[in-house]
Amino acid sequence: MWCGMTKEAEQLLNEERELLDLHGEKVAEYVTRFLMMTVDKRLPTDKIAQFRRDFGLPRDFRKNWAHKYPDLFRVVKPKDDVVEYLELVSWNPAWAVTELEKKVNGLIESDPAPPGVLTLPFPVKFPANYKKLFRFGGKIEHFQKRSYLSPYADARGLTAGSKEFDKRAIAVMHELLSFTLEKRLVTDYLTHFRKELVMPQKLMRIFLKHFGIFYVSERGKRLSVYLTEAYDGPELIEKCPLVLWKEKVQRLIGYRGRKRDIETYNEFSDMEGGDNLLKVDDKGEHAFLDGRGDEIMSNLEGITVPDDSEMEFEDVLTAYKDTEKS
Fold it and tell me: Pfam families attached here (predicted)?
């Protein structure tokens, strides 16, 4: 008995190695910028490894790749500590500029100003069949005009729960998602970085309140958050070579999309208490719940509401109730 790869599969594996090698410099930049956004300028290697496929890191990330760029970062293991860290070696001012700043302002000077307060609005995108479920005149505009701290600036002075704190969290998530190959991440992974990135406890609420900027989807048993501006409907607008390679693999194995009616669950590890604000109905679709557990709106993926951080989450739920009555 003998089992091996087909010729086509072998070619794809070789192509992946070449693409990972070509992508190495860029992913090294993204990992460095990830470290630059953290409070202590270091992250456990185990946590970074969770993003291996999302960032395009090679399989030998811990063993070899993490040691290939000693001028950017280094692997350290403090005395009497079982955790291994990837630590920033040098701060690059040119990399302390957000992807949003680059899109709006164009090319960045080689010696930009230190990261500080930003006033750039976040791109928002709603589906073609968007229904305006309620009207809060001017509040979206007011939110977009409010200044916020750059993800690369020191955020230890911000007050948890404040509007400035929450808007900076949006900026951090926008930047982190911009680093990924498919502009999406599993939300379980993001909750592990609250402390390092100075993020709020109720991280899922931010995604749900601002799903003109983010889109939360549940498939199988995982919740994922997408950057809406990066997608045209379900299709990624700009596909890097590694994404195109993944699509080749899917075609080779006869992948026809995700199956329907997969068993799901509604576990929100960052929600307080047991009254989750989302549940999954019998069809595997999202539904809002109020404090009593009553269903308010089904099929979250088919309807969106304006991005509005000025509203409390309870106001959003009340708006859905009023819409159903009308």
Answer: PORR
Name which residue leads in pLDDT, 296 or 58.
58
Question: What is the Cα–Cα distance from 326 to 323, expressed in whole angstroms?
Answer: 5
Domain interval for residue 17: 7-250
DSSP string computed for 90-157: ---GGGSS-HHHHHHH-SPPSSPPPS-EE-PPPP----TT-------TTHHHHHHHS-EE-TTS--TT
- The answer to whether residue 136 is domain-embedded is yes
Q: Is residue 172 part of a domain?
A: yes
Rounded to a whole number of angstroms, the distance between the first and last alpha carbons of the chain is 68
Classify burial at 148, counting beta carbons within 10 Å of its beta carbon; exposed 0-12, middle 13-18, buried 19 or more: buried
Between CA 193 and CA 191 the distance in angstroms is: 5
Average pLDDT, the chain: 77
pLDDT (mean) for 88-113: 84
Average pLDDT over residues 226-232: 92
Q: Report if residue 12 sits inside a domain.
A: yes
- Dihedrals phi, psi of 265, to nearest 5 degrees: -145, 165
Number of folded domains that form the chain: 1
Q: Which of 117, 61, 108, 107 is nearest to 84 (CA)?
A: 61
Unique residue bearing structure tokens 């900027």? 213
CB 121 within 8 A of CB 145: yes
Number of Cβ atoms within 10 Å of the Cβ of 15 = 15
CB 307 within 8 A of CB 212: yes
Q: C-alpha 307: how far from its chain's center?
A: 17
State how far the Cα of 175 lies from the Cα of 102, in Å rounded to an integer: 11
Q: How far apart are CA 274 and CA 279, in angstroms?
A: 12
**Are the beta carbons of 312 and 205 closer than 8 angstroms?**
no
User: What CA–CA distance (Å, rounded) separates 302 from 300?
Assistant: 5
Q: Indicate whether 323 belongs to any domain.
A: no
